[in-house]
Amino acid sequence: MSHTGKKAPLSVELKFDKLSLNEPKIPLDENEISPSELPVELTNRIALDCEMVGVGTKGRDHMLARVSLVNEHGGVLVDCYVKPQQPVRDYRTEISGIRPEHIADGTEFQIIRELVRKVIHGRILVGHALKNDLMVLNLRHPKYNVRDTARYRPIAKKAHAFGTPSLKSIAQTFLGEDIQDGEHDSVEDARAAMKIYLLFEKEWEKSPHVRRKVSAALREAT
Q1: What are the C-alpha distances in Å from 73 to residues 20, 113, 120, 123?
Q2: Are 48 and 127 in contact (CB under 8 A)?
Q3: Which of 14, 112, 21 is nearest to 72 (CA)?
Q4: Is 41 exposed, middle or buried (0-12, 13-18, 19+ CB in 10 A)?
Q5: pTM for the whole structure
Q6: Contact, 118 vs 96, CB < 8 A?
Q7: Can you give the three-state secondary structure of the chain, one letter per residue?
Q8: Low-confidence ranges of the chain (pLDDT < 70)
Q9: CA 185/CA 121 separation, integer angstroms
Q10: For position 217, what pLDDT does the model report?
Q11: Long-range interactions of 127-131: CB distance < 8 A, separation 24+
Q12: Exonuclease domain location, by residue (predicted)?
């Protein structure tokens, strides 16, 4: 991916490990699904991003093809291709970056779903348009622990965006980074979402929106 050469704000940049992106691991063995065996620190804040391919009669339905999780320092916790659960009609390669050989021997869906469930359980989940990612994973996450950069209005306002801002546009605005220049990279996108969250973290965590969700969860638990 190309970059403008601009650096992310120092306060965010210092928090991120300078880790190179390796090829996604394929397949992931079912014996490696314990979060205690993850390659980097499992922090309280985790960013998720998925790449999808098209299935169904016209290839318009979404199916998980790659899943990436990074910690709050940008370290890669999970990055795996996922074996197709049904015939692929459209690989959407120009956007997803997914090719047939990537997922032919990928990790079984149930294995990767269980790993993601364990990793994000009880943690703040960061991402952009997380509803879509959780949907293809067939997972739910407590609303009070979701930090979606597509839905936090101060981000859109400061980016002068009408409607829902794209991750590409807010990464350029707040980080000075060009992402999604052609084929998408789920690790790069997860890292961008995490960096943006960290920029807004203080005001976000103090917002009435978050406090209402936490209060509602506490009431339900009692």
Answers
A1: 13, 23, 16, 15
A2: yes
A3: 14
A4: exposed
A5: 0.84
A6: no
A7: CCCCCCCCCHHHHCCCCCCCCCCCECCCCHHHCCHHHCCCCCCCEEEEEEEEEEECCCCCEEEEEEEEEEECCCCEEEEEEECCCCCCCECCHHHHCCCHHHHCCCECHHHHHHHHHHHHCCCEEEECCHHHHHHHHCCCCCHHHEEECCCCHHHHHHCCCCCCCCHHHHHHHHHCCCCCCCCCCHHHHHHHHHHHHHHHHHHHHCCHHHHHHHHHHHHHHC
A8: 1-23, 25-33, 36, 214-222
A9: 24
A10: 65
A11: 127/47, 127/48, 127/49, 127/190, 127/193, 128/49, 128/167, 128/189, 128/192, 128/193, 129/164, 129/167, 130/48
A12: 44-206
Instruction: Give the closest residue to 52 by CA, choosing from 39, 38, 41, 67.
Output: 67
CA atoms of 64 and 70, how far apart (whole Å): 17
> What pLDDT is recorded for position 5?
42
Domains with residue ranges and CATH for the chain = 10-221 (3.30.420.10)
